[in-house]
Design a protein that fits this description.
Elements (H helix, E strand, L loop, with lengths): L18 H24 L11 H11 L11 H4 L2 H12 L11 E5 L11 E5 H13 L4 H7 L2
Antiparallel strand pairs: 1-2
Helix pairs in contact: 1-6, 2-5
């Protein structure tokens, strides 16, 4: 499969649906999700640091999204609305040169009370994952995963 001449940029608006690329993305996203879950089974989320910048990310997230309640189910429609996308884009761009793969797609549990599952996860960008999971961990909302795994 060819994406065009070497060095040419790929225009996502004109790109075909590349099945192999989608499969590779899906594999990476699932690996990320299951790795994070495995870590939460071995360590309380409230004791976990996801990045070297957790404190800065958390403060920035609380400032830019003061209405966000980490205990509640994420409103995916609101998050992915035109206004929601713009707010998140502005938040994420701060980390463009600070966090590797800041805009890489990943999976995120819509609600911290539920285990991983197809209906319980949504597609999100890496910085959305970090911001939301750091907030959940700070409030001890993921500690139940560790406690359940220890039984």
């Amino acid at each position: 499969m060819s994406l065009g001449p070497a060095g040419a940029s790929l225009n996502p608006d004109q790109a075909e649906n590349f099945e192999d690329m989608e499969k590779q993305f899906a594999v990476k996203a699932v690996q990320h999700m299951t790795t994070y879950w495995a870590i939460l089974e071995k360590m309380k989320g409230s004791q976990l640091r996801l990045t070297k910048m957790d404190d800065e990310i958390y403060e920035h997230f609380r400032k830019d999204f003061p209405e966000f309640d980490p205990t509640e189910t994420i409103n995916e429609d609101e998050m992915k609305s035109k206004e929601g996308k713009e707010r998140w884009r502005n938040f994420m761009m701060v980390y463009e040169k600070k966090i590797d793969d800041y805009n890489f797609g990943t999976m995120l549990r819509a609600n911290p009370k539920f285990e991983l599952g197809e209906k319980e996860t949504i597609f999100a960008m890496r910085m959305q994952f970090y911001a939301i999971e750091i907030a959940r961990n700070r409030q001890g909302l993921n500690d139940w995963i560790y406690e359940q795994a220890q039984k």
